[in-house]
Structure formats: C-alpha cells, structure tokens
Amino acid sequence: MSSTYRVTFISILLAIGSVSCNDFLDENPDNRVALDNLEKASQLLVSGYSIASPNFTDWMTDDVQHTVGTNLRLSHQQMYAWEDVTTGPTEQDSPDFYWFQTYNAISHANEVLAIIDGMVVPEGEEGRRDAIKGEALLIRAYGHFMLVNFFGEHFSISAGDGVPYIREPETTFLAEYRRLSVRRVYDRVEEDMLEGLELIDDSFFENSGKYHFNRNAALAFASRYYLFRGDYVSCRQYSDQLLGSNPGAFVRDLNSAQFRLASSSITEYPRVWGSPDEPANLLLMRKISLVQRTDFAYGPERNFYSSLFDASIFGGLTDERENPALVKGLNAVYPLRYQSLFERSSLNSNVGFPYYIHLAFTGEEVLLNRAEANAWLGNLDDAIADLQVLAEKRFSGGTPTVSLSALQSFYNSTDDLNNVLSYIIFLERRKEFLMQGMRWFDLKRYRLTVTHDLPDGSTITLQADDDRKVLQIPQSAIDVGGLEPNPR
Fold this sequence. Notes:
Order of helices and strands: EHHHHHEEHHHHHEHEEEEEHHEHHHEEH
C-alpha cells in the first residue's frame, strides 16, 4: 500500500531546533541564504550529515540484556520491549530523533542539488562543482537508505511501504509527499549513489576527507547497499574496487604495537580506534548522542560478553576485540570504541551537547560484506581468504587458520558449505560491530528471533517476522499529515 500525505517537515524541524547544529532551515523558504558560489554550497553540505546516531537500535537487539544501575529512560524501556516510542522528536537516541534529523540533513543536500547544475563557476572550477554535486547526491542517497532500512521492511521485491524520497527543496508551507515502496526507495538510492560515485573527487576535501563522502566511503556504501539488496555480484564488484589486491590494508591490526600500547588507556584506545588516520576508517560522522556513556541505557551482560568472544574456531587463541572494555552499570560491560566528547554551547558555559565520532563505514565491514557475498555465490575459497585476513589481525597467541573443515567441526554441521560459512561470517559481524548500530540490520536480514529478559525474571520475544522489526513512523508526522502508520 502507498500513502499520500501533506506534512510540513520544516515546521516540525523548527520544534527541535535546539538540537540542530545548523540554523539554515530556520529561515523562511523565501528568505534563505543565497547559494551563489561553490564555497557556500560546500559549507552547507557540512550540515548534510545527520547528527542522529543509529546506535539506539542496539537496545532492541540480542546483544543487550536488562542492565542494572544505569539511567533507563522511558524511551530506552520502550525500545527494549519493542514498543513504539512515545517521547517525541526531541528525545536523543530514538527513532523519531533519527527520522527528523536525517530528513533535516537531506534537505541541506537538496538545497545544493537544486542550484549546482546552473551555477556559473570560474574557469577551471568545474571539477570542484562536480565533486560538490557528487557529495550531495551521496548524502541524499545514504540518508534515505538508512531511513528505509529502519522504517520499512528489509528489501524484497514485494516489500511494502518505505519512506518518502525527497528530491526537491521545500518551497511551500504544506508540501505533498508520497511514501514509496521499499523497492522504489532502493531504486532511487541506487540512482543517486551511482551518480555520486562517478562525480566524487577526494582532491577537493583537503585535510577533512574522512568527514566527507570520499570515494572509498562511496564504494563502501555501494558494498553495503548491494549486500542488503541481495545483489551479491555487485556487492563483490564494489568491494573489490575498494579492497584491491591488499585487503589487509583496510583492516585495523589489533596485534600491532600501536593498538597494544593504546589498550592500557581508556582515553587513548578509542582515539586510536576512531582516528581519521586509521586506513580502516572510511567515513566519520559527528553524532549528538549519549550511546557512548556507560551510565546510559542497556549493555551486553558480562557472561554473555565473555561467551561471545570465547566462541571461536581457534581453540586457545585470544580474541583481541574483547578488551579493553568498560564496566556498564552493575552487570554489563561496554566495548571501548568511542571517545565520550562534549561541546560547550559557549566558551564560558557548563551546558552543551555530548557527542561521539561515529564510524559510518569501515574497511572491516566491506571485507565481511565481500566474504558473505562470495559465500552465497559459491566462491568458498575467496570467502575463506577474507576471513583469514580478518583473523590474523584479531587473534593473538598463535597463528589462526580458517578452513572449511574447522568450521564444520566447530558448528558440528553437515549443512551446505556456503551455509556454514554464513554462520561464521554472521558471528564475526556480531563481534566486529558490537554496540555500533549494525546488529539490527542483520537481525532483519536473517529474520532472527530476539529474546529479552525482564527485571522480574520473565522474558519477552520478538519473532522472526514480527511487524515491530519495522520502526514506527513518528507520531508527529502521522498527526500532521495523516501518514498511515506501520502495521502492529
């Protein structure tokens, strides 16, 4: 089913201006900043990257258990129980916040795209104009891709309603949008993504390239997009373009002297992990969030955490991803990946915004994407080769060797070999991206059941095909425009 509705995204966004990093959209549409040169267009795209973190989805996954001794807001408890969140768009780290902040970011890209082709530029600046257009297209594509994967079903030909795909700046008070099917949203994402990939040019980013959609980040985006779409040939193609003949160059080496020295410091380790100088980090985004705080929401229970990293085909070897970790509440831990940062509202102010630097795309993800694609394509040796690259940079205490016989023994399985490979890839993805906002996608893709424990000792379960795996459209958007909510 499709829904047509009238909704004023700008008017809703004005209500949450207190959490916005840019006041551009607070202006009347007919009184906006004149985008009359490339510098202004480029600066506007700084606000094209959503400040909302996707990591709130971790609280809905099987990676967390009921946590004692942390700040549990109503929104946390609702997400943990897979209830629709009722706290509104100003609540950080919630579905509504993600919806509005991401459409806000998309609107900045659309402002640039509306004028960039007709902009008269000095001779020799055509390349920069194309690069700015490419970045804007990739921002628009990525924002809609994330939205449709949260607020729509996982991709299939028959998947139902997705999200509106906004291509034009808002110039009227009430604008009409149509909620497209998941497939049509994916098609438009692909169109923008591929055009952006052709135009992007890293040479115009100077020293801030990792904070923009550079070419490597665009290739990683394509790798994820085609994996989620089930086009494994294209996933492998774009993954190959990034990884080349030396995929290990895009995987951080936890056995290196740099990481070993940093592991003794709770401030240095996340700085090294998230550094723009780390080749594995392809796109960095600043997120206004509290997900990095150990006194906040849910985390992995200690026994679960230990058993997860103990699960390995390499008996006796140590998985270096397990430590360092921080204590979270009274019964949980948190893998140390993010710096907990704070921006004061002014030099003399004691208030401001907590934030962290989010790793939107990494080389490790692309490597695992390619391994998964190769497993389903029947290229078993290639998939094993990628897993071997990862293992050598993750395990210590000996030489890890990935083989099909070891995998079959570990899983005690006589399943098809590509199925056995998918088991280990799924496990490695879980370890690699623990508490980084990736598990929810995999639970939807693989149609897995999730069980959560409650304080009274009972449990609740989210079934494989539960409608609640599709996040609810924000109530404010439903109320303003009559947008039909997702089924429950």
